[in-house]
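Re: the 109-residue chain
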Amino acid sequence: MSDITRILELVEKGDSHAAGELMPMVYDELRRLAAYKMAQEKPNHTLQPTALVHEAWLRLNQSNHQEWRGREHLFSAAAEAMRRILVENARRKLRIRHTAGSSSGSTMK
């Protein structure tokens, strides 16, 4: 059993101290995952890997009654959260571009 899995089990049991130990243990791997995800995106992306990690971490911690089945489950959920953040960000940019393009339309004379 990995240290991460052991800490996840302690978190499940309500150990608040264990929850504080988790982020430092997984941060580097989450950062690598975020960098990989960002490398697959279009150039000139405004979101940085560090921000992606932090946003994904916030989303994972906001999900109530989440039961982690181990290290792999945690990283799988983090990857999915990152993917959703990137999709939402792309949709938001597209919506902004579309709105800006339609409001600056020319008038016919």
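The two ends are 74 Å apart (CA to CA).
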